[in-house]
Amino acid sequence: MLTIFSVPKPFVGHIATIQMNALSSWARLSPPCEIMLLGDEEGSAEAAQELGLRHIPQVETNEHGTPLVSSIFEIANRASQRELLCYVNADIVLMRDFLQAVEQVWRRERRFLMVGQRWDADIGERLDLSRPGWEQNLRSYTARNGSLHGSTGIDYFTFTRGVFSHVPPFALGRTTWDNWLIYRARSRGIPVVDSTQAVMAIHQNHDYFHHPGGYREVFYGVEAKRNLKLAGGTPFVFTLEDATHVLTPTGLKPNLSRDALVRRIRVFPVLHPRIRFLVPAVKVLIRLSRPVRARLGLGSAGERKEVRP
């Protein structure tokens, strides 16, 4: 059904622990997924062997040794024969609700990009995923002690084959490339589904010692600035606010809230540069649609229901 691919950091210290937690959770998904670890960082081959995963060490990097997103997606598209693919950061724990969400969207849409906010939680030791009830225990722990990240906390991208055939040479893990993926899907008229309400994807908090420059260099350094330039600049920084659909506990629905419609007006010139003259007309349509939305009981996208396990 699905190929999951990722590029782990070196398996050292706390990073090794949380990455093994994440990879082990993917390996336990049912129905089983094809899982590919890309790159030759320390411990990747051993982790793949221990968990029975596929390892592809050859990934193109930039002059700083950072893997390029263009190479990662090209390799995954070439190596996988499945119709659904998913890039996931290697510190994200996935549970059964993830595949349930993918199946729901796949039944409704033949082409799509599914993304969602992550939950941040402190996890300092190896999880015992063989214990009965581990998922419920982890969900309860995260709901009590963790927090739902903002609309920029996007750590998994499930998409149908062909959605991302050409990706710029972004530096992985240096911001903006994930926003560009949402922009790319929207610019091609492909539905973007926000699955936050249906999926609890758990990000295990960590430091940034894996990079010599630490947090500031990762998010504001030379590679981050280059990524922003490759994306086209700030107007192309799309987030979950730009989702066209929302996956709720009651099913997949169009994102027709006031905030979503206002956001669409703002990004209209970016998505349709040749017909930006229509923006004033679209604003009028939004104002005229308010009575209809009121009768349908549609509120604001910002009024998210809190996810509970």
- As residue ranges, the low-confidence spans are 300-309
What would the principal axes of the Cα set say about the shape?
globular
Number of strands: 13
The CATH first-level class of the largest domain comes to: Alpha Beta
Backbone CA Rg:
19 Å
**What does the largest sheet look like?**
9 strands, mixed
**Could you tell me the strand content as a percent range?**
15-25%
What does this structure look like?
The protein has 309 residues and is α/β, with parallel strands linked by helices. It folds into 2 domains: 2-242, Spore Coat Polysaccharide Biosynthesis Protein SpsA, Chain A (Alpha-Beta Complex), CATH 3.90.550; 256-309, no CATH class. 39% of the residues lie in helices and 16% in strands. Helix 7 runs parallel beside helix 8 (222-231) and helix 9 runs antiparallel to helix 10. The longest helix has 18 residues, at 279-296.
Which features would summarize this protein structure in a list?
single chain, 2 domains, 309 residues, alpha/beta, four-stranded mixed sheet, disordered C terminus, Spore Coat Polysaccharide Biosynthesis Protein SpsA, Chain A
